[in-house]
Amino acid sequence: MISKDFIIDISTLQITHNPHGTKKAYPVREFYLFLQDLFDEPEYMQLEIPIIAQANGIYALIHGWTIDKAGLRHLTGGILKQEVSFTV
To answer: The pTM is what?
Structure first.
């Protein structure tokens, strides 16, 4: 389950891979949908969504969010960019 494999730290805007999780790799699109769903929950709604879809298979972390290298190693089948400037 993807929610067991990634740790979302809203105080540091950091996403890290949970070494005690399933060790499964996920498609980047599934990771994107996971974050979209998570940030629709009441406890996260006051925060800005940390990810956007830029094109087919290309996603970007925004609003200062980052992911660790272990987390990136557990994402497949797409591109996840970091440190992208985004304005609404």
So the answer is: 0.89
